[in-house]
Amino acid sequence: MTITHLGSDVEAVAKKLVVSLGVTRQFTPIQPTTKKRIDLGLKLNNTPHSERL
């Protein structure tokens, strides 16, 4: 999957330690945690949560 699958208006912005995905605002920060793991954060404003989230 590439970033183009998320939509034509989504852009990736590389910062010092984080890559942010966003349209007008950042909605997903991606950052390395260890050599084998990354942390992915999701901003889900006004979205009902389920037991898995």
Describe the structure.
- The protein contains no helices and four strands.
- 0% of the residues are buried.
- Helix content is 0%, strand content 40%.
- The protein has one domain (3-40).
- With 53 residues, the chain is mainly beta.
- The model has no long low-confidence stretch (mean pLDDT 80).
- It has a four-stranded antiparallel β-sheet with strand order 1-2-3-4, with no helix packed on it.
What would you say about this model in short?
The chain is an all-beta fold. It contains no helices and 4 strands. The protein has a 4-stranded antiparallel beta sheet, with no helix packed on it.
Shape, per Cα inertia axes: globular
Please outline the major beta sheet: 4 strands, antiparallel
Specify the number of helices.
Answer: 0
What structural class results from the helix and strand content? mainly beta
For the residues shown, what is the average pLDDT?
Answer: 80
Strand content: 35-45%
N-to-C span: 22 Å
Multimeric organization: single chain
Uncertain spans, ≥5 residues at pLDDT below 50? none
In spatial order, strands of the major sheet run: 1-2-3-4
Number of domains: 1
Task: Please describe the structure with a list of short key phrases separated by commas or semicolons.
4 strands; 53 residues
Question: How do the helices and strands line up, and which of them pair or pack?
Answer:
Layout: E1 11-14, E2 19-22, E3 26-34, E4 37-40
Antiparallel strand pairs: 1-2, 2-3, 3-4
